[in-house]
Amino acid sequence: MSSCRVGLRLAACLLNISEARKMYIVENIAKAALLERNGQRHPEVSVLNIFSDPEYNRSVITIAASIDELGLAENLVLSVPGCSVFLFGEADLPEKRPLVQRRKQLGWFTRRDFSALKPDLGAAPARRCGLTACFRAL
């Protein structure tokens, strides 16, 4: 991330994705995080790391962005069709519920019909999958 502004406030975003075996999907989501709504690369957003575990079919993309870019999840929903976003932590305003509490409230581990879930952003998932985001000020 390059910026010459002194005092730039950063936020970290961890995107948890239910996919690790089809790396092109994970890479496309990471690329979408770097783009503005007009399709141009955003100068204040960087993908720091992509960790994928094919055995569990899960990936985590670590992104750093200017605190002014907290609309990143909205941009991802526009760029990744069928994406479901469930917010937690600093991104879950005003409640700021931790991930464990958020999953319990959604019935994430006991639910069988995920199409009835109402995500914070995007479409209802067809099965237990989606993209969850947590933003933290650095």
TrEMBL record:
InterPro entries tied to this protein: Formiminotransferase_N, Formiminotransferase_N_sf, FormiminoTrfase_cat_dom_sf, FTCD
Gene3D superfamilies named in the record: Formiminotransferase, N-terminal subdomain (3.30.990.10)
Pfam families, A to Z: FTCD_N
Span of domain Formiminotransferase N-terminal subdomain: 9-135
One GO MF term attached to the UniProt entry: folic acid binding
Protein name, per record: Formiminotransferase N-terminal subdomain domain-containing protein
